[in-house]
Amino acid sequence: MTIARTLASIALPAVALFTTACGNANPQAAQTADASAPTEVRSYIPPGTPTFTVTSPDLPDGSVFPAAGFAATLGCTGADQAPTIAWSGAPPTAKSFALTMFDPDAPTGSGFWHWLTWDIPATTSSVTDPAPVGAVAGTNTAGVTGYLGPCPPIGDPDHHYRVSVLALDTPSLGLPPTTPPALVTFTMRNHIVGEGHLTALARR
Predict the structure, then answer these.
(1) Positions of E strands within 104-189
(2) How is residue 193 annotated by DSSP?
(3) Nearest CA to 124 among 87, 92, 93?
(4) Are strands 192-202 and 159-168 parallel, antiparallel or unpaired?
(5) Computed from CA positions of residues 31, 155, 204, 144, in that sequence, does the dihedral angle turn out positive or negative?
(6) CA-wise closest residue to 193 among 98, 94, 52
């Protein structure tokens, strides 16, 4: 056997092994192929957090958003009518509550925050928009204060809008209304003592 043939017999299996271990030899091609795959978004709610009941007379768990609840912007013609969100059975240690509405299916790579309200007084058991006295109405991903209804891209499958109520161990997060949503949820993460949620669907 010639030296060249011997080297080839060693090199070819090595290349095959490298390709198998490292995946596609063309990262750009792999990235393009997976461009439409959903992005996993890590939850800001710690595992094992005690749960309580969250309901809505306007938006039952698993229901479809009514037309009036859709956004009045971003290409949609709804009325941005916020649902009333109620809760019960929260931990007695709660010193305030926060509410968020998040769409993990938005094609942004990081989801879309539609609604954030925090510093909701501990004596409160329901909320809508505008926020109750003493609470902070936060700024959503679109840069709008308060509730912004769904407006998923036309032709997308159902988007899942998770409405969460968080019981917190502090009366105030000490954050201004203009705080970016990711910083709000990152800050509240270490204060969550209970959580309840419902999920509603929307598509166009």
Answers:
(1) 112-121, 126-127, 136-137, 159-168
(2) E
(3) 87
(4) antiparallel
(5) positive
(6) 94
Q: Calculate ∠ Cα 63-68-89, nearest 5°.
A: 45
Quote the radius of gyration of the chain (alpha carbons, Å).
23
Q: What is the tens place of the pLDDT at every residue in 55-88?
A: 999 999 999 999 999 999 999 999 999 999 999 9
Yes or no: say if 137 and 177 are a contact pair by the CB < 8 Å rule: yes
The identity of residue 187, as a single letter, is T
Instruction: List CB contacts of 104: < 8 A, sequence separation 6 or more.
Output: 38, 41, 111, 160, 162
Backbone φ, ψ for residue 188 (5° rounding): -75, -15
Closest to 184 measured CA to CA, from 136, 147, 152: 136
- Render pLDDT for 128-158 as a digit per residue (tens, 0 to 9): 999 999 999 999 999 999 999 999 999 999 9
Four-residue CA torsion sign, 100, 164, 71, 203: positive
SS3 content of the chain, % helix, strand, coil (to 5): 20, 25, 55
